[in-house]
Amino acid sequence: MTEILSNSVYFGVVISVLGYSLGLWVKSKLKWGVFNPLLISIIFVILVLVIFNIEYESYNEGAKYLSYLLTPATVCLAVPLYQQLQLLKNNLKALTIGITTGVLSSLTTVTILSKFFQLTDQQFVTLLPKSITTAIGIGVSEELGGIITLTVATIILTGIFGNIIAVSVCKLFKITEPIAIGLAIGTSSHVMGTTKALEIGEVEGAMSSLAIVVAGLVTVLLAPLFASFPII
To answer: Which stretches are transmembrane (predicted)?
Structure first.
């Protein structure tokens, strides 16, 4: 069985889709934010690989084709942004300041915690792009000399965590302005957070989509500056 699964071209795609479908089903039944479909699919895939003793490389040989859909899926986020174009123009100053502040907060937090936990410079720069979308984060990590695989894992975990707690945080701090909600979610938890913003409302989704792009660009500009700070 293990050999058959390992040699199948479709194995990686099939268990990835099955895992995510299972996650959607669990989320629809239990309605709890902690049961994030992506998180459940990750756990499902790991369990399948461990149980059947399948190498990650064998799984990724088929699953990698799903990654090709990442770019067009991200581009589709421009649709709600276009629909709220006038809102964007009317709040351009607030949007720019809000997103830039969010990026600065993320980079500063990583810098302080890296210093506190005495991380190496390589580990430090690996964590810097944690809040931006994977496509941009990989490039930033590679440019700064980080560990790309860990950067991807950190970005995914950040997105899942943001998706789970977004609504609760907004309720806790009584944030009700749709623009503020969207910007906060998109700036801190990129595409995965944006899926939650789209569930909340059209304006929230549009602003979160905008935040993904702008936050990525601002991070590309500021990350090298933060990376020059001595950690050790």
So the answer is: 6-26, 33-53, 65-82, 94-117, 147-167, 179-198, 210-231
The sign of the dihedral angle between the CA atoms of 40, 44, 50, 54 is negative
pTM, rounded to two decimals:
0.81
Residue 15's φ and ψ, nearest 5 degrees, are: -70, -25
Mean of pLDDT values over 46-74: 83
- Residue 230, pLDDT > 80, answer no
Residue 231: C-alpha distances to residues 94, 160, 176, 180 (Å): 33, 28, 38, 33
Question: What is the spatial distance between Cα 159 and Cα 189, in angstroms, rounded to a whole number?
Answer: 4
Domain boundaries, the chain: 2-68, 78-227
Contact 163, 27 (CB under 8 A): no
Q: What is the dihedral of CA 62, 159, 73, 146, to 10 degrees?
A: -60
Q: Provide the CB-side half-sphere exposure for 150 (13 A, CA).
A: 11
Most confident range (mean pLDDT) of 16-20, 34-38, 86-90 is: 16-20
